[in-house]
Write a structure and sequence with these properties.
5-stranded parallel beta sheet, globular, alpha/beta, 8 helices
Length: 186
């Protein structure tokens, strides 16, 4: 558990959901959001808001909660997860590539994963990235894993961002996020 919690950047200091304090100076809705997270710590969330509104701090609190419960966890920038899948796709010969999570792991019955995908809008859209993201989100939704994603962009901008290659991708990706409870900190 200690090793997994070491992934939390020091500036967030592995926040405990039970002890996290609202910072109305960052956003006036924080107290209500924290209350909701405490009441529903296993729900999926899309946390949207401007820089500095506390999105990532709240997501790390949910991550810590999942670690303490003993669930499998993945926490990373979305761009890093896409890069993992790209390395896996490009591997050849006896080269061993071990991504943080695979779609196949998400499709296995039994365990419920916690996926924290930070900076959802900052991964560069490409056909490969959009297809990969769709597959991850589709597996997470179909198998009832907990997804927590953060973004500095509202819904419509996320749809446009991921639809740059083809609007169908943007619509399909955003459609997979609709099961998440949206926290709007704009």
């Amino acid at each position: 558990m200690r090793r997994t919690l070491s992934q939390v950047p020091p500036k967030f200091s592995a926040p405990k959901l039970s002890r996290i304090k609202a910072r109305p100076d960052l956003h006036p809705k924080q107290a209500a959001v924290i209350g909701h997270l405490r009441s529903h710590p296993r729900d999926s969330y899309l946390i949207l808001g401007r820089n500095g509104s506390g999105k990532t701090h709240l997501a790390w609190a949910l991550f810590r909660n999942a670690v303490v419960e003993g669930r499998g966890t993945v926490a990373c920038l979305l761009a890093d997860l896409i890069a993992d899948f790209r390395r896996l796709e490009m591997a050849h010969g006896d080269q061993v590539v071990v991504p943080r999570i695979t779609v196949e792991q998400l499709q296995r019955p039994g365990a419920r994963w916690f996926l924290f995908l930070d900076e959802f809008e900052k991964a560069r859209p490409s056909e490969f990235a959009a297809e990969t993201l769709f597959r991850v989100l589709d597996a997470a939704r179909a198998h009832h894993h907990q997804l927590v994603a953060t973004s500095n962009q509202p819904w419509q901008k996320l749809r446009e961002h991921w639809g740059r290659v083809d609007p169908v991708w943007g619509n399909s990706i955003v459609e997979r996020l609709k099961d998440c409870f949206t926290v709007n900190l704009f």
